[in-house]
Amino acid sequence: MTIKPLQTENLLHLWEQGKRRHPVDRALLLHACAMPGADPDTLADETLGRRNRALLALRAATFGPRMPAYLDCPCCAERLELTLDVVELQALAPTQAHPVEVDGLRFRLPTSRDLASVAAEAESETAALRLFEACLLPGSPQPSPEALPPLIERVGEALDQADPLAALSLDSQCAACGHAWEAAFDIASFLWDEIESRAHRLLDDVHSLASAYGWSESAILALSDARREAYLERISP
Ligand SMILES: [Zn+2]
């Protein structure tokens, strides 16, 4: 299906709704914007890969398919600039969610609801264990407690492989010091940051134009980007 771009009013409304929410809830809000009309409960049960795929499509529709990003080298703090391509990242999505098997245990892929259920856990080990338990399919044998820590790690790797879009990582190498590392890329927080800076720019524009001409917020937001910019140029050439 074709995902529609976020229009000015929707974008500001989304920013208002999401600014005080937890990142997991923000990602769900973005998912709902990408799939208007979809039942929020159903969206919460979609795999993280499917959610991220929808978010990439929303990003491409709203801001274009090329994503300028940067990474800071963890060794020397050099800033590396790169451009990510939505189409290339979307190609990583699995065609269907199927159970992942590790040592005879079967797991389903994690969903937004699973992430939300562990979001309040302070310890990452506890969160990983809770996710492991949530995704273990009924009928699988119960692993012994001493086998759990290495098993949880291997299951995490197997789930990442099965659903590469769920937790994207980028192979990176620093041009200054040569350090190579895997950098996590979270499309939900990337897109949220873009929406937030766009919202701030729009509010600045409303402030400037309302101060200069006395127009209402809704009248200013109803202007096309081209007209708004043309008026802004006239008040501060
Ligand atoms: Zn470096």
| Order of helix and strand elements from N to C terminus | HHHHEEHEEHHHEEHHH
**Judging from the principal axes of the Cα atoms, what is the shape?**
elongated
Q: Please report the number of helical segments.
A: 11
Separation of the first and last Cα atoms: 43 Å
Strand content: 5-15%
Largest sheet entry: 2 strands, antiparallel
Radius of gyration, in Å, reads 21 Å
The overall pLDDT average reads 92
Uncertain runs are: none
- Name the bound molecules: zinc ion
Strand elements, count: 6
Structural class of the secondary elements? alpha+beta
* Structural domains: how many: 3
Strand order of the largest sheet: 1-2
Helix share bin: 40-55%
Describe the structure.
The chain has 237 residues and is an alpha+beta fold. The protein has 3 domains: 8-94 and 166-199, no CATH class; 100-162, no CATH class; 200-235, no CATH class. It has helices at residues 8-18, 23-34, 40-44, 48-63, 86-90, 112-118, 124-135, 148-162, 187-213, 217-222, 225-235, and strands at 66-72, 79-85, 100-102, 105-107, 168-173, 180-185. A hairpin with a 6-residue loop joins strand 1 and strand 2 (79-85). Helix 2 packs across helix 4 (48-63). 23% of the residues are buried. It binds zinc ion.
